[in-house]
Design goal:
Blueprint: H1 3-8, E1 14-18, H2 23-34, E2 38-43, H3 46-58, E3 62-67, H4 73-87, E4 92-95, H5 110-137, E5 141-146, H6 159-179, E6 184-191, H7 205-213, H8 227-234, E7 246-249
Parallel strand pairs: 1-2, 1-4, 2-3, 4-5, 5-6, 6-7
Helix pairs in contact: 2-3, 2-8, 4-5, 5-6
């Protein structure tokens, strides 16, 4: 194995990808598996999980599906125990579950606001507590929380989502500061505009035109383009001194002003 291959190799590592049945995190799970990690693909749909595992297997990786409810601390605790029973430990955690809504700000009901915050922020805190404790007890690990370009600056039509993701960015930095000496690294992966299930309902024709006008690359991202950043953040060799960062993958969107 060459020096560069060793830098990004995840051989012998175990990764848990919460939201791994989705488009973006599914591709991240596949990238982790191709780098050598055994990957627990976590989600609600067994059918989507089976399809992602098929793709992982075809690419020569190893993985298994675990059904879990991120709204439940008990379910997340059971998830950890399931992975430990099979693999012994967890080295990498990707927190990618999330929900969105285009409800206008004056019409957002309390129930919707609370639900989005609980899934997008509360679930990440719960899983960081549960898996972070495990990593602290086992000498280190990498937690990758999936943020959003709307967590860096406000975007229209996704008010609650933006607020929840901004909080995820802040939470990740706080955890990075808290756990750095114990070798548990916590970073935020920040995708720009990648068409996926949760944002298709807000990608109207005029909105797409606005996004393209603000993106120097003049296109949407492809899910596989998140893999490189994922491997950097996951690898204890390549990313050993990388913690508390917002790793932006957005085709230059955040570099634009006018």
């Amino acid at each position: 194995m060459s020096y560069v291959e060793d830098l990004f190799s995840l051989e012998g590592k175990t990764a848990v990808v919460i939201g791994g049945t989705g488009v973006l995190c599914g591709e991240m799970a596949q990238g982790l598996a191709q780098a050598g990690a055994e990957v627990a693909v976590v989600g609600r749909s067994e059918e989507k999980g089976a399809e992602r595992l098929r793709l992982i297997d075809e690419a020569g990786g190893r993985g298994f599906f675990v059904q879990a409810d991120v709204a439940s601390r008990e379910s997340l605790t059971a998830l950890l125990e399931t992975v430990k029973d099979r693999c012994g430990k967890v080295d990498i955690l990707v927190n990618g579950a999330g929900i969105n809504s285009p409800t206008p700000v004056l019409e957002i009901p309390d129930e919707e606001f609370a639900n989005i915050l609980d899934i997008n922020l509360g679930a990440i805190l719960r899983s960081c507590q549960i898996f972070g404790k495990h990593m602290l007890e086992n000498g280190g690990g990498s937690i990758i929380n999936v943020g959003s370009i709307s967590g860096l600056g406000p975007l229209s039509r996704v008010f609650t989502y933006s607020a929840s993701k901004a909080a995820v960015h802040n939470l990740s930095k706080n955890l990075a500061r808290e756990w750095a000496e114990q070798k548990v690294r916590v970073n935020t992966l920040v995708p720009g505009f990648f068409p996926a299930e949760q944002n298709r309902k807000v990608l109207t024709e005029d909105r797409v035109a606005s996004i393209m006008g603000h993106t120097p690359a003049n296109r949407f991202g492809d899910a596989h383009e998140l893999i490189g950043a994922t491997l950097l953040l996951a690898s204890e060799n390549a990313g050993s001194f990388v913690t508390g960062v917002e790793m932006i993958v957005d085709g230059g969107f955040s570099a634009m002003s006018i």
